[in-house]
């Protein structure tokens, strides 16, 4: 999977590493902003109230 | 060729592992960073009268509010997700002043506004039980140090201006009386008389609930207290917050 990605990226190795780094940061940022807040309510901890 | 499908599976698993680690970083660290920032902003923007401070040259230091033990003014309950007060706990040295808002659901109150007020329970100073909930871990963890509370510790609630009616801009100083660990279904801890559902209250209680053990939803850590005194904010600062009581 990652080998395939590496083969299909253009440019010399340094450019490819840079592109991959930017991609990784973008994925992490998307997780922090949208994915994790959406999943958090389903985690089996963090309930603080009595009732229900 | 031997790499093939197995290799892709391995890469997917490693990726999933990294994402789980990232989730932990987000949950255990980033929600605190964001929450502390957001809650400090809520407190800063809260409409309320300033605590009077004497001129720096004035003898005797800051103005100490004299305790009043007659019937305190009590505000009417506010709409959902409205911030109407703040809470400070001198025992939690270094913890910031936390906003207190109406409601105890996570999405609109506990995850974003800090401390929540169980709807239908007493408002600050009211006869009955002022029941509050907050996170003990993550989302700025306002009640993280709840287990440090001991009998007699002050829980200082300061109401905001809200509608300017009775009970606005008032200090209410409660004192811890007891604590217990209960099952999540034990709603009697927030009854008007704690642990005695159905009885009509004559005293002014406070109850804090949070999760227990930490990072678990198995039980609840509960702290009870009772009103010691009240004072208008315009009169000064409670001695408990000045470090000499």
Describe the structure.
The complex is a heterodimer of chains A (52) and B (245). Chain A is an all-alpha fold and 52 residues long. Chain A has a domain at 4-38. Chain A is 65% helix and 0% strand. Chain A contains two helices and no strands. Chain A has helices at 2-8, 13-39. The N and C termini of chain A lie far apart (45 Å). The mean pLDDT of chain A is 89. With 245 residues, chain B is of the alpha+beta class. Chain B has a single domain, classed as Sortase (Sortase, Chain: A), CATH 2.40.260.10. Chain B is 20% helix and 25% strand. Chain B is built from two helices and eight strands, in the order αββαββββββ. Chain B has helices at residues 4-45, 106-113, and strands at residues 83-88, 98-102, 115-117, 128-133, 154-159, 170-182, 204-212, 219-232. Chain B has an eight-stranded mixed beta barrel. The longest helix of chain B has 42 residues, at 4-45. Classes of the chains: A mainly alpha (52), B alpha+beta (245). Chains A and B meet through helix 2 of A and helix 1, helix 2 and strand 7 of B.
Keywords:
heterodimer, A: mainly alpha, rod-shaped, B: 245 residues, alpha+beta, transmembrane (chain A)
Secondary structural class of chain B = alpha+beta
**Class by SSE composition of chain A:** mainly alpha
Measured on Cα atoms, how large is the radius of gyration of chain A? 19 Å
Intertermini distance of chain A: 45 Å
CATH superfamily of chain B: Sortase
Q: Largest sheet of chain B at a glance?
A: 8 strands, mixed, barrel
- Low-pLDDT windows of residues of chain A: none
Largest sheet of chain A: none
* Poorly predicted runs of chain B: none
Shape of chain A: rod-shaped
Of all chain pairs, the largest interface belongs to: A-B, 18 and 41 residues
The SSE order of chain A reads HH
DSSP strand count of chain A:
0
Beta fraction of chain B: 25-35%
Shape of chain B: globular
Please tally the helical runs of chain A, counting DSSP H or I stretches of 4 or more residues. Answer: 2
Transmembrane segments (chain A): 13-36
Keywords (chain A): Membrane, Transmembrane, Transmembrane helix
GO molecular function (chain B): hydrolase activity
Active site (chain B): 135, 211
């Amino acid at each position: 999977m990652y080998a395939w990605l590496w083969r299909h990226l253009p440019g010399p190795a340094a450019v490819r590493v840079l592109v991959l780094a930017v991609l990784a940061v973008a994925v992490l940022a998307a997780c922090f902003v949208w994915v994790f807040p959406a999943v958090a309510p389903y985690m089996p901890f963090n309930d603080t109230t009595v009732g229900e | 060729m031997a790499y093939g499908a197995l290799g892709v599976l391995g890469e997917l698993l490693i990726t999933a592992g990294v994402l789980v680690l990232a989730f932990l970083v987000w949950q255990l660290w980033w929600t605190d960073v964001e929450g502390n920032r957001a809650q400090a902003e809520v407190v800063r923007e809260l409409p309320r009268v300033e605590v009077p401070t004497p001129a720096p040259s004035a003898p005797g230091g800051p103005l100490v509010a004299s305790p009043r033990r007659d019937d305190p003014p009590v505000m009417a309950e506010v709409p959902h997700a409205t911030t109407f007060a703040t809470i400070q706990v001198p025992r939690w040295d270094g913890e910031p002043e936390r906003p207190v808002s109406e409601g105890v659901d996570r999405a609109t109150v506990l995850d974003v506004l800090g401390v929540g007020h169980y709807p239908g329970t007493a408002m600050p100073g009211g006869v009955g039980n002022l029941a509050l909930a907050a996170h003990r871990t993550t989302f700025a963890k306002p009640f993280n140090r709840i287990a440090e509370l001991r009998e007699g510790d002050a829980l200082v609630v300061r109401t905001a201006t809200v509608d300017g009616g009775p009970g606005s801009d008032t200090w209410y100083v409660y004192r811890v009386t007891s604590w217990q660990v209960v099952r999540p279904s034990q709603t009697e801890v927030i009854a008007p008389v704690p642990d005695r559902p159905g009885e009509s209250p004559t005293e002014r209680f406070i109850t804090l609930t949070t999760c227990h053990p930490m990072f678990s939803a198995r039980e609840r850590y509960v702290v009870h207290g009772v009103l010691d005194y009240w004072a208008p904010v315009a009169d000064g600062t409670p001695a408990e917050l000045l470090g000499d009581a």
